[in-house]
Amino acid sequence: MKVIKKFLVAGLLLPLIAFAQSYPSPTFNNLTVQGTFTATGKVGLGSLATQAANTAVANVTGSTASPTAVALPSCSATGNALGYTSGTGFTCFTGYAPLASPTFTGTTTVSNLTVNGTLTGAAIPGRLIGVQVFTAGGTYTPTAGTNSVIVEVQAASGGSGGVAATGAGQMGASPGAGSGAYAKVRYTSGFSGVAVTIGAVGAAGAAGGNGGNAAATTFGALISCPGGIGSNAGTAVSTGTTGLIAGATPTAAPTISGGTTLISLAGGGTPYSAQIGGAAIFTAGANSILGLGGVLQTGSVTTAAVSGSGYGAGASGAVNGASASAAVGKAGQPAIVIVYEFS
After folding, report:
1. Quick one: how far is CA 66 from the chain centroid?
2. pTM of the complete model
3. What's the mean pLDDT when you consider all of the chain?
4. Which residues 6+ apart lie within 8 Å of 240 measured at CB?
């Protein structure tokens, strides 16, 4: 009887002893784990259950939970990007521009933009998109996409006077001519189709005659800049006396309607020409914003008048030494209108 009891105990303990052992590669059919299952090796991809197409095994609940098969949205079109929102899951974002040569539409806000190449696009406000220059009359037609303009108007300069003939022991000098007025104005409206008028330069003084005044230069009814004033003719003066000839007077200031005035300057005048002790001085033309007046003439030797340079600058006067024929002056420098166009 004792022997039978021992066999029964051994039979009951044998399965327990068997399951307490380690088996390197056991095979189970339909294994159900009641407690915790720990995989000390790798669970290969082929051992996972198959899932529907375009799904991911994940926990997207935002809290601790068992993973589930989460559907992935279709996100393969140009400009799409797959995104993830915590607690919600995967989302397809649309409307993204590629990093290479992106094209943006609508309103785009960019902080600290650095452009290494060329930035293009008519919608970028304040960008310089064109420059139109008028040296002859015409009509201003804005370039497509122009929303504002900055207009520069430089009027022509006057002509310098000539000098009377001189006898022995005489000399003479004429003053320089005045420069044209200048204006620089910004407009955001009312500039399309404006007529541009380029005023004529002041004529050169004939032999022994006064220089002519220049005509006004205008940008429609918006800007009008008076032309420069011509200078008086020089007279013959004995070298033992002092002679003074009044220079050109300044012009009136520009007339401006509307817009934002950036610069408004009257045309410059010139000082007296003088013959002192047998030498002539102070015969230079007036400078302009866009030009330099004719150079100063000095001395007692017959010297021709010198034209200004650039736009709107006055010519210098002439100098006659002793026993010289009557001399002529020089004509003024031309006017110009420049329109800078901005998007």
Report:
1. 60
2. 0.68
3. 85
4. 169, 278
Here the tokens at position 151 are 């207009």
DSSP characters over 205-242: PPTT-PPPPPPPEEETTTEEEPPPPPPPPB--EETTS-
Which residue, chain included where needed, has tokens 């300069």?
Answer: 157
Q: Is the pLDDT of residue 273 over 70?
A: yes
Taking only Cα atoms into account, the Rg of the chain, rounded to an integer number of angstroms, comes to: 46
Q: Are 230 and 248 in contact (CB under 8 A)?
A: yes
CB 247 within 8 A of CB 213: no
For CA atoms 200, 270, 325, 244, the dihedral sign is positive
User: What are the phi and psi torsion angles at 173 (to 5°)?
Assistant: -150, 145
18: exposed, middle or buried (Cβ count in 10 Å: 0-12, 13-18, 19+):
exposed
The one-character DSSP state at 155 is P
Domain boundaries, the chain: 69-96, 127-343
